[in-house]
Specification:
mainly alpha
């Protein structure tokens, strides 16, 4: 009859079998062991070189008198500069909004099963992405040489309404039309890429459940497509802001043209260009911050780990930790000072709360009161 394993005798220790070290000896060895951090000499050297180069650049910007920072400060909030900045922001918002509306239509045409719509959309995108923006603006500005009049009527028949192109296309309208058509070509590819990033299986599942097309578009396609659209759209927004400077060739009073008018009269070229540069940096920074939070909004549920904390949340967490540490230090100091006993107090004889003689009488007297 076999003997169960749980009742078998333990094997005897032989000369070759060492007894396991006691737990106390293991803990002492682990406590004596010292963890040595890995040396990262390359990182320290590269950081030092980068900081040195940064310090040199800052020093050249601050100490170079050719920048004339006092002139920059005087013209930074001038009325002409602010008017040009307002026009720049207005052109950016209008052209990008209209460009995305037209680009969405073009993207829908590219994804259509109709070969005619698909081909026309592809030809439009191909032409406007292949020609420089300056060439397009100059063509629209001189469109009167190609079409002196524009009319509405029956094809190959009479026209009901005609207008002279010279009176219709001014510098500002030319800039709006030219930049809108250019942005629409890029926006079409951005929207098309975002729609194609959505898994087809989700659309098939929605169709199997009988969900309507508009609801599928609003609840399934758009939220997931925006994860791919927003980063590229943010880059387009910043590019459109900087691209509006090209309309200065049309004598449109944007930010760059307003600055040019000033330095053509005062010959202060460098400080006025720095005014425009700083304004572009400020607006681009604000737009980048907005893009960051919009991306976080549409990235909800994309990962199981959740979203990383924002810089503001990190600052709040650090402030709370510092405040908790300060409160802990204050509490430790207060508790230490509370242990100091004065004569007649604490646990000494005759104290109300102590255990010495007379303590019971004092407490009885207090209770009687």
């Amino acid at each position: 009859m076999a003997t169960p394993q749980d009742v078998l005798p333990a094997p005897a220790l032989t000369a070759t079998t060492a007894a396991p070290p006691p737990a106390a000896a293991t803990d002492a060895t682990a406590a004596d062991a010292r963890i040595v951090a890995r040396r990262r000499t390359g990182q320290w050297v590269s950081a030092a070189v980068a900081l040195l180069v940064f310090a040199m650049v800052v020093n050249s910007l601050v100490r170079n008198q050719a920048f004339q920072w006092d002139v920059v400060a005087d013209w930074f909030t001038a009325t002409s500069v602010l008017n040009g900045l307002t026009l720049t922001l207005w052109l950016t918002a209008v052209t990008l909004a209209l460009g995305f509306v037209l680009g969405t239509v073009l993207a829908t045409m590219r994804l259509s099963t109709n070969p005619v719509l698909r081909t026309l959309s592809w030809v439009y995108i191909w032409i406007f992405r292949s020609t420089p923006a300056l060439v397009q603006l100059l063509l629209f500005f001189n469109i009167g040489a190609l079409y002196p009049t524009l009319g509405i009527g029956i094809p190959f028949g009479p026209e009901f309404l005609t207008v002279k192109t010279v009176n219709l296309f001014g510098p500002t309208l030319t800039a709006v039309v030219g930049l809108t058509l250019l942005e629409a070509a890029y926006a079409a590819e951005v929207v098309r890429g975002g729609i194609l990033s959505v898994d087809r299986g989700q659309l098939e599942a929605a169709s199997a459940l009988g969900i309507g097309r508009l609801r599928v578009l609003r609840r399934i396609i758009v939220p997931q497509a925006m994860r791919s659209i927003v980063p590229t759209a943010g880059n387009m927004l910043i590019s459109a802001l900087k691209g509006t400077s090209i309309i200065s060739v049309l004598a449109v009073s944007d930010l760059l043209y307003s600055v040019q008018l000033v330095y053509l009269q005062s010959y202060q070229v460098i400080p006025m260009l720095m005014v425009a540069t700083i304004w572009y940096i400020v607006i681009t920074t604000v737009l980048s911050v907005g893009q960051y939070y919009v991306e976080r909004h549409y990235a909800k549920g994309a990962t199981r780990e959740g979203l990383p904390p924002t810089p503001l949340q990190k600052a709040r967490t650090a402030y709370r930790r510092l405040r908790a540490a300060a409160d802990a230090d204050t509490g430790d100091t207060g508790s230490g000072s509370g242990t100091d006993t004065a004569p007649g107090s604490g646990t000494g004889p005759g104290s109300d709360t102590g255990t010495g003689p007379g303590s019971g009488h004092a407490s009885a007297k207090g209770a009687a009161r």
